[in-house]
Amino acid sequence: ARTVARDAAGALTVGGVPVADLARTFGTPLFVVDELDFRSRATAFRNAFADAFADLCGGADVYYASKAFIATGVARWIAEDGLHLDTASGGELELGLRGGVLPGRIALHGNNKSRREIVTALEAGVGRIVVDSLEEIDVVADLARERGVVAPVMLRVTVGVEAHTHQYIATAHEDQKFGLSLAGGAAEAAVAKALSRPELQVLGFHSHIGSQIFDLGGFEVSARRLLELHRRVEREHGVELPEIDLGGGYGVAYTSEDKPLAPVEIAGRLAEIVARECLVQGIAVPRVSVEPGRAIAAPSTFTLYEVGTTKVVDLDGGTSRRYVSVDGGMSDNIRTALYDADYSATIASRASAAPGVLSRVVGKHCESGDVVVRDEFLPADTSAGDLLAVPGTGAYCRSMASNYNQVPRPAVVAVRDGSSKLLVRRETPEDLLALDAG
Ligand code: LLP
Questions:
Q1: Whose CA is closest to atom 5 on ligand 1?
Q2: Does pTM surpass 0.90?
Q3: ipTM of the assembly?
């Protein structure tokens, strides 16, 4: 339900609002969220999972992974649209609660949660704390006992599957910081330990295998390994584990070469996988949950920049490259520099009939790696004052923004039906100076 379009003069509009109006009102760089697009995708995931799993286990729950992008306004959409929320820190948890997400629908993650974060989660009454280490089992249980509550927990398992984009690797062992190793026996030790603590209610196992995944084969292996463990534990300990969580990671299209799967395809395939594995294991299908972040947030948003200087640099072999500088850069989108991510760009403020010239969109920071879009054909007449839109920046851009070079972080605005609403205000130089101890 994207509402981004070009008006008669060739300028970009969102929800009927011309980008020039947004730039005038809120300044640039600016993250512009197409509210209906975000919410229709969130709802599509919720419905697809509810439907695909309805007959198997009464429906599956979709936890929006708030690390992709969260603000109180976004949490409000999540609450209104009936999703759950995955948080990875006390700060994300706080925003979820402020937005009115029911505590019972919130999960708290993290491999090194502070006591304070755990206490906040317990006092709010979150639906699950996803325990990530053997030590943490006792910490959560002790803090729950002090408060006279029972903490619902899931155990995050390292299943030995690593999935990225178009492939996955299944190994016996994974060398990474998250979770309780299945192959190494930590997962089973954790279950025994957690079941021995009456202050904990063990809901089941969780695994997250990676991000920007197009090949769902990795989920087949992770679901199989989780459900085998699930069955073994139920038999050996004589308990019933009501849930299993398969994590997030569904890929989005950053360029025309990426072919993302629709929510119904993902939900349908995962339901098939879970149904088959439970049949093979001879167990009842537990309640399933998933945690997509990027797939909901990324496509809903573009970053609006103003073009400043441009220069043409001669390359070997007689070719040249044009550098188009914008008023932000790696401080509002670190993904190009950090992950070699691909983005595209388009002139947003007007149409141009000028021929396309191979261009590199760069920021204003003191680093040559400060690239936003590595290669894009932009019109030859691109010049200072033009507005440039970089689409697909709704996930892990504002949430990973920095103040490098003492640059204030951009505002985030949601647009819908001809009106705009601030989600996060722009940082000011005064905000940054206020942090300086003098
Ligand atoms: N659940 C867990 C436990 C996670 O660790 C993550 C992401 C998600 C869900 C959501 O994954 P998604 O559906 O968004 O792929 N900064 C990186 C991505 C890091 C993802 C970390 N965990 C990036 O910009 O690509």
A1: 208
A2: yes
A3: 0.99
